[in-house]
Amino acid sequence: MKKVKLQNEMIPSIALGTWSWGTGQGGGDAVFGNHLTAEDLRPVFDSALKAGLNLWDTATVYGMGASESILGEFAKGRDDVLLSTKFNPRMGGPVEDSLNSSLNRLGADHMDIYWIHNPLDVRRWTPELIPLMKSGKVKYAGVSNHNLEEIKLAQSILAEEGLKISAVQNHYSLLYRSSEEAGIMDYCNENNMVFFSYMVLEQGALTDKYNAQNPLPSGTRRGEAFNGDVLAQLEGLIHVMKEIGNKHKATSAQVAIAWAIAKGTVPIIGVTRTSQISDAAKAAEITLTAQEIHDLEAAAKETGIVIKGEWEQPML
Fold this sequence. Notes:
CATH class: Alpha Beta
Largest sheet: 8 strands, parallel, barrel
Mean pLDDT: 93
Shape: globular
Helix content: 40-55%
Strand content: 15-25%
Order of helices and strands: EEEHHEHEHEHHEHEHHEHHHHEHH
Radius of gyration: 19 Å
Number of strands: 10
Distance between the termini: 34 Å
Low-confidence stretches: none
CATH topology: TIM Barrel
Structural class: alpha/beta
CATH superfamily: NADP-dependent oxidoreductase domain
Oligomer: single chain
Number of domains: 1
């Protein structure tokens, strides 16, 4: 598995997401239309570690702790797993209390990457990371869903104590490139921050599994965002993804992941099946040409579709 540098250590070029693990508010049933248990997911976890994919991303609000609890059940007692979770300002603090609850569910004594999940009151919450970083309970700090001004503010607050933001995690895909357009990715490159891209596959819409005749599950958040009309508009892009995939003996999903890696990001890929682990491992080995990257981006632009989550603020 290819590696990228996060401060002083190497991490996999792909992280694995657990948004769809567990049920409950904000969980896999409500967002993705599944009802996965720990028994269903254990083979996925084991397969990932065998493939060298050991960086797992979760959040307190994914199933309101359910995702963390399942991941913690698998990771407990292991020293070969990197854990990433998030504090959500909308749920209130103190940040240390939220972190301690997450650590308890995850069965860990420290967090490898701890994120502030949204930019609600950056000046209030960012300083609470400082004692957690100095004590070693948080190894690396990150911010998610922040615009460039908010990232710079968080960075300046930590810098006063000789600390820094190590990572930024924003929605980024062929259909949503606002972090690139706003200069966030350039800022990350200039300041030794790793940019983590989430929703690279747009919750399945860019996998070629769904189309206007076979839509995403109804009654779910992703089903509402990608209805039949939107999927019909994606057909031209999917065609280009298939053509490029054929050249690399790869699926459309693998092409979308390879594109995100080629753009200098660490994609976070949600996984619920062992086949998706194989997809991710294959994607990490694909090297797209400059022309292929151009063709993908041109086809994406031609769709006229820009997908922004209801929880996201505009980056521009």
